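Subject: Cytidylate kinase structure
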Amino acid sequence: MSQNTMSVLTIDGPSGVGKGTVARIVAKKQNWHLLDSGAIYRAFALAVDAREVDITDEKALGKIAQTLDLEFKTQLGNELVSVYLDGKDVSTILRTEKTGEVASKIASIGVVRAALLKRQKDFAKPPGLVADGRDMGTIVFPDAPFKVYLIASADERANRRLKQLQAQGSKGIILQILAKVKARDECDSSRKHSPLKPAKDALIIDTTELSIDEVVTQVVALIEA
Ligand code: DC
């Protein structure tokens, strides 16, 4: 089945905009598969760290990307995804701020993106796929019939991150979080390869004033229209 005939919904946008949450809920509602492409880049960052490879050594990075022993344990329609790297459950460490920062840096390297492309495309299986990331609608699934690009002000995204940390029992300083949010935006959108930007045919949803439910409603309406 080609991408054209298969239901693929791409959800792109900057970090902290709520893509992951919306993607999980919509995938569950539609009973579609889920691709958290950020998790692939994060796991790759962990693998590079574990192998103590210099991140300027593109040849070594390309080799790791091609041979990455990565497994997502998920069930169709299930919101929870466990990630296994080299046979070890890395679901928790994968989500740390530090891993995200390293992932963002390494994700700007062309050979790494090229080596991880097929792995991402392979997630497209019937009955459908919700793919969340930065370049899902522009590069990985350019023919997807449904494309969404979520935005929210940097202040709002920093606030959401602070609340998330507090809910986990951690502390955060809003100005530091805001600086990190802005630095990640800059890194992801200014890179040469697959920069963060909306696909021409994406529906842009500003979520600054919206609840998760309201965003989900708009996304589901797009699929069902
Ligand atoms: O969505 P996330 O925070 O888990 O992604 C972590 C980093 O991975 C992000 O800052 C940039 C990179 N990434 C990417 O370059 N392309 C994607 N499709 C997804 C993530």
